[in-house]
Amino acid sequence: MENKKYNIEKEVRKAMDSIDNIQRVEGNPYLSTRLQERLRQQNDNNVTTHSQVPVWQLAMVIGLFILNGFVLVQSGYIDIESTVAVEEVEQENWLVNSKEEDLNYISWND
Amino acid sequence: MNDNQIIPQLKEGNETAFKELVDTFQEKVLNTCLGFVPNIHDAEDIVQDVFIEIYRSIDKFRGDSKLSTWIYRITTTKCLEHLRAKKRQKRKSFFQSLIGMHENADRIKAYDFNHPGVVLENQERTKVLYEAIEKLPENQRVAFTLHKIEGLSYQEITKIMENSLSSVESLMFRAKKNLKKSLGDFYRENIQD
Asked: What is the pTM of this model?
């Protein structure tokens, strides 16, 4: 038991001391070239991204408007061909919503 | 070239000055990174990130401290960010393994030990030490690494960590104590009676 405790202390000490035996590692001689290349690439990307983003955004917005209009027309929500005036629509609604006697009155008048 | 000469040139975007800065500091930055992340590939990636950061934020450097202090601060921050990202990745893989999305969570480590400055006969022992360092709280880890691995004085560490001398001394004391305890626990489990 005493022996094990001594061994543990010895190993702990050796492990702690192992840090002093770590040698310095030399740097990479090509690092500055790599860095300059990376910086150049990043700058190029920034320029491309900055010039493309507004065009993309504008195209997307216009595209969405066109698509939206197309869908509305296709679904019959907006009828472009018939240029129905508001009054006519009102009249149509009046006809639809009219009671029977009102309709009789119309036909009687005619 | 001293700080007063090189800093204005760096701020102007002078490539020769930047190359000189890289040549002067890359060994210090690399060895500090290896102190935090003992894997040469990861450490070299962090070194690149450090110098890119220096290039990008040199305008913000006010000259309140030495250039080397500022560079060590960036290096430390980048290393800690890298370690945190690895920990997050490990945690994510662990949760994925719980729901069966990822089967190899146990194999994902913060890093694979690959330190070219450690001789073969010391590898196992140094690896055990690094595993113990990994368990230290961040500020103890920074103080210990900068002092014991990078060989910086307490005075220099106070400037990098923006702490008082007594705090750094206290961090070092606690770091050594925790390391001894952690190593003791490891060898208690791994040494035969």
From this structure: 0.74
